[in-house]
Design a protein that fits this description.
- Keywords: Methyltransferase, Nucleus, Ribosome biogenesis, RNA-binding, S-adenosyl-L-methionine, Transferase.
- One of its GO terms (molecular function) is RNA binding.
- Helix 12 packs antiparallel against helix 14 and helix 23 packs antiparallel against helix 28.
- The chain is built from 28 helices and 17 strands.
- It is α+β, with helices and mostly antiparallel strands.
- It binds S-adenosylmethionine.
- S-adenosylmethionine binds next to helix 20.
């Protein structure tokens, strides 16, 4: 685990569902996605101003105690590791889950069956109620849910004055009184808050330094704290960048401590901001960058490979914001199941139970963000009756982009546990048909449970390797491929991603995604009267799982083109990245980031599939085009699958070589020159 992670209160590796069970304060920042990239980039301010904003940011991004103190169940941890979900596992085994909810929420073991749940929760009147919110609905539109008694939510959202504790219990508990049973929780909360405040101040310093590192060498601007950097005029202390040998020794002795790491990060960023002036003679810019990446890895607990991969996605200052955002839980959100209820009615029911919530944003008319709850959100009668799905806000996006219509024939190629399938069923008003497929049979159990709980009547669950489509079934009006991925967008939910992904994993995933996307394209009917669309999505932010896969599909299937996703926000996909040029239409795809949109990292691309052109003798691509033929068993020989899909051997060879070179370097071996015969 990284130094930063070790020292931080509220480790991000939470099981969100379990966190929900604890009925405490939930995600406190509102998803910032209303049509704008709202992530505040630190602005250059007077130092007073900066101090205030740092405290404010910290308070707003405070991870919840409930989230931080729960350990994920082994089962859940294993699942997230295997498949890198972006969704809360919802309704896996209702009876078991409900039981654990009660264990978690009440510290009492619930031994009854589902039918006993009501009793266990007491009559409605017995349900613990929080401060009741009065909901004001406009006469016409349920959109306009206005919460009039927002006291507790506001409290959780407002930032306290600099240095002040967020509530009275905290300030009490910050005193030196003896710890008693009565004040233990408050004291513990105060300690958490203090640690967070300190961490946020550290971050603010780093961010300021990083911001400067993004400035040009010639830029005279320097707004860093005087105590954190040497003065520019006169002699500067030249910071000594460790040599490779010194770094090796440091690693062997267990790595530097947190203070050294922080200081070195700051110093390296300071040098990078005025390289010519501040660099040690004879040292290259790349050496400083390498040190920054290595220290970020240690500070936040990433392996070097992933730290570098993620760092390179952003300018330096933004990279720090991204890594920091991965340390904070995302807001808890639910999706109203419009097959069973309306959002305003659901909101009113939950508010009456003591849930503090409000609509997520204008971009969705079914999402609600839960700020605080005095009841377990995953076990309310409304939940059990299928009135809502616990679902990350980001996972609404691919379905909104796909926009399935009533009476269509739709394929959800990798669908378990069904967050998106059930959303599609609702949009289609239970008409038409959705084939909800998932290669993992075990996972189709939770999918089926959710389909039943939410009352979806137009869903057929099946379990094929997605690469067997369209042989098993084809001719769909719309296809969703929410692909298996590395999960680099959901690190705040599953921190194991920080250390368990290697370049080989990324290569294999990218390969699988490329196979799946071609099969998904071939499953769409170009003759569809109402559709003819494919949406490809992942909960990862890496380029090889996103733009590279989409670009590959464009090359391999000339009959498809990218179209606007219809999503009102999100960053444009890369059209070039580190020397790789993608099709210019890649700018129509959308990227979502935790530090920008306060939702899980996500990627969405929408294709329109047209009829295939008649084979053109001069066109290798169309001549060799052949719809993939599926094998009868899912243990299909990998090589044959690769061959039938016409993989780009040249591109793969390059990946393999890169991977081999990195492996050799990691082992301390010198890779042969690039063009040498191996
Ligand atoms: C990101 S999750 C899907 C989440 C789902 N769309 C939802 O919204 O609830 C990816 C899924 O892909 C499935 N999967 C992995 N490899 C597959 C393959 N070759 N064919 C079909 N599904 C696959 C995994 O079992 C996993 O359930």
């Amino acid at each position: 685990m990284g130094r930063r992670a070790k020292n931080k209160q509220g480790a991000p590796d939470i099981n969100e569902l379990e966190a929900l069970m604890s009925s405490k304060s939930l995600g406190k920042r509102k998803a910032q996605a209303d049509g704008a990239e709202s992530a505040p980039r630190p602005v250059k301010k007077s130092r007073d101003g900066q101090k205030k904003s740092s405290s404010k940011n910290k308070e707003n991004s405070k991870p919840t105690r409930s989230a931080s103190t729960k350990k994920p169940s082994t089962k859940r941890a294993k699942e997230t590791e295997e498949d890198a979900w972006e969704d809360v596992e919802d309704g896996v085994d209702l009876q078991k889950e409900a039981q654990s909810l009660f264990e978690d929420s009440d510290n009492e073991i619930f031994t009854g069956g589902l039918e006993d749940l009501d009793e266990a929760m007491g009559s409605d009147d017995d349900i613990p109620r929080g401060p009741v919110q009065e909901l004001e609905f406009s006469d016409e539109e349920e959109e306009e849910i206005v919460l009039t008694n927002k006291s507790s939510k506001r409290k959780s959202k407002e930032s306290p004055e600099d240095g002040a504790l967020s509530d009275t219990s905290s300030s009490e508990s910050d005193s030196d009184d003896d710890v008693t049973m009565g004040n233990m929780e408050a004291k513990s909360r105060a300690l958490d808050e203090r640690a967070l405040r300190e961490a946020a101040l550290d971050m603010e310093e780093l961010r300021k330094a990083a911001l400067n590192a993004d400035d040009d060498d010639d830029d005279d601007f320097d707004d860093m704290d005087e105590d954190s950097v040497a003065e520019d005029d006169g002699e500067e202390d030249v910071f000594h960048l460790p040599t490779a040998e010194e770094r090796g020794k440091e690693k062997a002795s267990g790595g530097p401590d947190l203070q050294i790491l922080q200081r070195r990060l700051r110093e390296c960023l300071r040098v990078l901001s005025k390289f010519k002036k501040r660099a040690e003679p004879g040292r290259a810019r790349a050496e400083y960058t390498e040190q920054v990446i290595s220290d970020i890895g240690s500070y936040y607990g990433y392996n070097d490979y992933l730290a570098e991969k993620l760092f390179l996605l952003f300018p330096v200052a933004e990279a720090i914001e991204f890594f920091e955002a991965n340390e904070v839980s995302r807001p808890v959100t639910i999706r109203t199941n419009t097959l069973r209820t309306r959002r305003r009615d659901l909101a009113q029911c939950l508010v009456n139970r003591g849930v503090n919530l409000e609509p997520i944003g204008k971009w969705t008319n079914v999402g609600l963000q839960v700020f605080e709850s005095s009841v377990p959100i995953g076990a309310t009668p409304e939940y059990l009756a299928g009135h809502y799905m616990l679902q990350a806000a980001s996972s609404f996006l691919p379905v909104i982009a796909l926009s399935p219509q009533p009476n269509e024939r739709v394929l959800d190629m990798a669908s378990a546990p069904g967050g998106k399938t059930t959303h599609m069923a609702a949009l289609m008003q239970n008409t038409g048909i959705i084939f909800a497929n998932d290669a993992n049979k075990a996972r189709t159990k939770s999918l089926t449970a959710n389909v039943h709980r939410l009352g979806c009547k137009n869903v057929v669950v099946c379990s094929y390797d997605g690469r067997e489509f369209p042989k098993v079934m084809g001719g769909f009006d719309r296809v969703l491929l929410d692909a298996p991925c590395s999960g680099t967008g959901v690190i705040s939910k599953d921190s194991s991603v920080k250390v368990n992904k290697s370049d080989r994993d990324f290569m294999l995933l990218s390969h699988l995604q490329k196979q799946l996307i071609l099969c998904a394209i071939d499953s769409v009917s170009p003759d569809s009267k109402t559709g003819g669309y494919l949406v490809y999505s992942t909960c990862s932010v890496t380029v090889e799982e996103n733009e590279a896969v989409v670009d590959y599909a464009l090359k391999k299937r000339p009959n498809v083109k990218l179209v606007d996703t219809g999503l009102a926000f999100g960053r444009e996909g890369f059209t070039q990245y580190r020397g790789k040029i993608f099709h210019p239409s890649l700018n129509l795809t959308r990227r979502f980031y935790p530090h920008v949109h306060n939702m899980d990292g996500f990627y969405v691309a929408k294709f329109k599939v047209d009829k295939r052109q008649k084979a053109n003798k001069n066109d290798d691509e169309s001549e060799s085009y052949e719809a993939p033929v599926a094998k009868n068993n899912s243990n299909a020989d990998e090589e044959a699958v690769v061959e039938r899909l016409g993989f780009d051997d040249e591109e793969d060879a390059k990946y393999m070589e890169d991977s081999k070179r990195r492996w050799m370097k990691a082992k301390g071996l010198k890779p042969p020159p690039r063009n040498a015969k191996q």
